[in-house]
Amino acid sequence: MLAARRIPLISLLAVVLLFAPRVTAAQCDGPKRAPTAAEAKAYADGYALFHRMAPPAPAGWTTADSRTEATVTFICQSDLYDFTNWSFSRTFNRSDADMRARRDAALKQTEALMARAEARGKANEAKLADIERRQADLAKRVEAAATAQNLAALGAISEESNKLAAEREALTTDSAAESEMSAVGAAVGKDSTAQFTLTFGAKDVKLGSTFKPMPSVVGQGYRQDYAGTDGNPQADLVVVLPPVPGSSGQPMVRISADPARAESLLAGTKLR
């Protein structure tokens, strides 16, 4: 659910995000067992804290929560994971109507770019045909020079071939159009989704060097900025909160989104 070039936050958090959600019957491949009192309490406390803290959807956006049950009735049998450590996520998405409008606009821009490319190709047809003719001639000369073992001729032909390749590249490549096409794709996905995650009971929290300290009204704040797979700027904002009395670890908030959106969601998060 996170962006593709996401740098691991901590190894423990990665385990939590990948395996802690396996609590429903549809997801449990092996034996199930009843939660211990500590596990059930950690889940219920984390669920309640998540719903108190999680920011609402921005205007025109929708939300979907990873967990909808206030209590846990069973967990998948496992000796590997700590089930007093739970993660709760809320995914935010722009409305279907908004995304449809973006895709329609992108389609029109793409059609215009393709029409321009087609016109460029037609305008260069004669030049490209001439290059193909000259390359065919070079191929014959290469064969003759190779048969005669004329290394000097082969060297000269190689230089001519490289020049022809450069000419073809100039005629068939439109760097401006490629940049525009990349921008069209980036515009569709820009600030279109975000995620808020609360990890309840996180232990031994250690952040990578890509995270830098940032101010926080409570706890310790950290931030990393990077480019998403579509080239759009992204940010991960992390706040490690003080331990909750009776909990075996610390609550930790992570928001992943467009930088401005992430800051807005953090401002709407009830950290206190």
What does this structure look like?
This protein has 272 residues and is of the alpha+beta class. The chain has two domains: 11-95 and 192-267, Protein Transport Mog1p, Chain A, CATH 3.40.1000; 99-185, no CATH class. 45% of the residues lie in helices and 20% in strands. The chain has helices at residues 11-19, 37-53, 96-123, 125-147, 151-172, 175-189, 259-267; strands spanning 32-33, 61-65, 75-76, 86-94, 193-202, 212-214, 220-227, 233-240, 250-257. The strands form two sheets. Strands 2-4-5-9-8-7-6 form a seven-stranded antiparallel sheet, sandwiched between helices. A two-stranded antiparallel ribbon has the order 1-3. A hairpin with a 5-residue loop joins β7 and β8 (233-240). α3 packs antiparallel against α6 (175-189) and α4 (125-147) runs antiparallel to α5. The protein is elongated, with a radius of gyration of 28 Å. The model is unreliable at 1-26 (pLDDT under 50).
